[in-house]
Write a structure and sequence with these properties.
about 70 residues; mainly alpha; 5 helices; globular
Length: about 70
């Protein structure tokens, strides 16, 4: 699990791992809730990643009934 390796990984690498996990949930497993959790975990570690911010905004916008507060 990613949480267990967080102590030994630099924040940038951990953010990249969370982002890849988000991509997997979003594109391969069609699990938007888990994708958002992963992207938000990555964002908490690296708030400057514009692509990730746009990806989250896109998901929130497409699922406004569930994520109206974030859109």
């Amino acid at each position: 699990r990613i949480e267990h390796t967080s102590r030994s990984m630099p924040p940038e690498a951990l953010a990249a791992a969370w982002e890849k996990l988000g991509e997997l949930y979003q594109t391969k497993l069609d699990d938007i809730d888990e994708a958002i959790r992963a992207y938000e975990a990555a964002h908490a570690l690296d708030r400057a990643n514009r692509t990730r911010i746009e990806r989250l905004a896109d998901i929130y916008g497409k699922h406004t009934s569930r994520y109206a507060d974030q859109a």
